[in-house]
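Final report, Chapter 2: Outcomes

The project's central promise was a pipeline that accepts a single protein chain and returns its three-dimensional structure in a standardized token representation, suitable for archiving and comparison. That pipeline is now operational. To close this chapter, we reproduce one record exactly as it appears in the project archive, with the input sequence first and the structure output second.
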Amino acid sequence: MNKKIPVTVLSGYLGAGKTTVLNYLLANKDGKKIAVIVNDMSEINIDSQLIQNGGFSRTKETLVELTNGCICCTLREDLIMEVEKLAKNGNIDYLVIESTGISEPIPVAQTFTYIDEEVGIDLSKFCTLDAMITVVDAFRFWSDYESGESLLERKQTDDVQDIRDVSDLLIDQIEFANILLISKTDLVTPEYLQAFKSFLKKLNPEAAIVPMVNGAVAPEEILDKRLFDFEKASQGAGWIKELNDEHIPETEEYGITSFVYRRKRPFHPERWYDWLKAFPQEIVRSKGFFWLATRNNMSGILSQAGSSIQIQGAGNWVASLSKDEQQMILQEDSSLTSRWDDILGDRLTEMVWIGLEMDRYEIETGLDSCLLTDEEMVSDWTKLSDPLPPFSSN
């Protein structure tokens, strides 16, 4: 087998400008042989038509169209088989996959890092995932992010089970990228662009940020970068770094701030629910673990992006397990040992808040008012009213 083919995955919300980037790349490929897989949701494959109109169909490279589905679900098998075929045929230097605007990046990355048991193909034999790239629309980002709409409401998915909000998808695509391409920079002011870059840096401190106009980005900026590492990408989000005390301070001059809220006392479910219903608008991203008095055995996880707020179960607290199980886990995880409390064990609330012009004192005071009082701490927690929805497992 010849050397592995580097794969670049181009993500980004619908209309962000992925196809424009692809057109520019193919027009300025400087002799490189690039194979392209275009994945599009619509019955009429507009994206690939644009690419063909841009001259791509008259070149010697290969264009493969995958329609009526999404990389992260129905077309996964098609994608894997198509990539294997292209790789085995050889005679290409790079493979670029333009994913649909509603596809999440992690399942795409997993396609290249794990053997697919159903199809029985291990793409890592032929390819190496080079970089995950997300195109972010500087002009439309905030209107999409703050819309409060779901993909279903926007008629951007045919799956009635798909309950994702637009804001969640935008954040997922930003947080898991190696490179963020900012499109439509000619439609915003230089001051806005600087602040927007800082905001993206706060969400994903590891990503390279490249502003562009009309999709013009040099091939060497996005091809053969050797940037992707699944473990690193999984830990690259700004909220994870903040939780690990890796603070990114340089964004504060634009009013973009963040802090970690840590308390070793559970939330009162009713007061926590009321606080969440009146969620401060200046918080644009928050995520982390919380301790709820009425669900003392299980850790909760809060994930907020724009107007989308989700809570779910994050597994049992180690402190709720048997002594033998606790000892086994503590021996395996030294970081857990260092923060273990003799009385509470690992139970605590630990959440990251990222926002624009946030009043940290006001937010912390509000959160503190949701904690159990001294009197409530010694009462029967099972008798507290709990209006929060049940913890889901995903």
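Archive annotation: The radius of gyration is 23 Å.
This record, like all others produced under the grant, will remain available to the consortium after the project formally closes.
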